[in-house]
Design brief:
Blueprint lengths: L9 H6 L2 E5 L2 E8 L5 E6 L13 H6 L2 E6 L17 H15 L4 E5 L2 H12 L4 E7 L12 H7 L3 H4 L5 H9 L8 H12 L7 H4 L2 H7 L1 H10 L4 E5 L8 H10 L4 E4 L10 H4 L1 H12 L2
Helix pairs in contact: 3-4, 4-11, 7-8
Amino acid sequence: MRNTPLLPPWETWTAGGARVPVGGHEIFVRHDGPADGMPVTLLHGFPTSSHDWAPIVPALAAAGLRVTTLDFLGFGASDKPRRHSYSVLEQANLVEEVWRRSGTGRTALVAHDYGVSIGQELLARDPARVSRMAWLNGGLYPDLHRPVLTQRLLHGPLGPLLAPFTTRGRFGATLRGVLGRELCDADLRELWAGASRAGGKRRAPRLLRYIDERRSHRERWTAALEEYPGPVLFVWGPADPISGAHVLARVRTRMPRASVVELTGPPAVGHYPQLEDPAAVTQALRSFLRP
């Protein structure tokens, strides 16, 4: 287990950005790096937030990139409205509005977990808007997605009843179950701070409807993934039980021209490459984003 905390405190990370009005809600947005740097937008996963990217953002900014991170609606420091019909399509709308407000034109995209579905939707809408595309572990192919037991329960009919009883301990145990390399307790506490803020744990059943959206948009999103004409990179943890080596095997078959960085270790990386091996992820992204 890593004993030294990797993440800055939640309050420090959020102090570096602002909640801005987007689509009728307050959305947390950060911009790091030079204003005239090449744009890159980082899309986070479920159930955490843009805080996931904190270990790699400084190095990308120091390389001259203009890094945009945001918390999707229902996550982190963004609004978490009750009884809201959260959808990937709406989240993609919010990303486009953040780009409009910040004057971002073409941008590179880096997507992880939940964010890969938003990335696929953005590619399906306007592939020319994306200058290059990097993917970290996520359910790119719905038939290969293997949600853990907690996700299956929260996504099921008992989800709304079970969600309020989620604790920091259960959150940490679930997260550790998908990692190939351990995170320290301090980092798990910081991730929980964002996930649980403003009743966040109660939003999980609604947010998990993205699993259904992946199935309903399967053909469109798969085509967007495989037919994207720009440079593509996969930075992948093969020890991930949700979207690990079995997904990468299909990627190599379907997208032979893509670059692949497989984080085999030892020990092999799991579901959160940017947290489990930030140095390797940073190196791969810097080389890819600044060719």
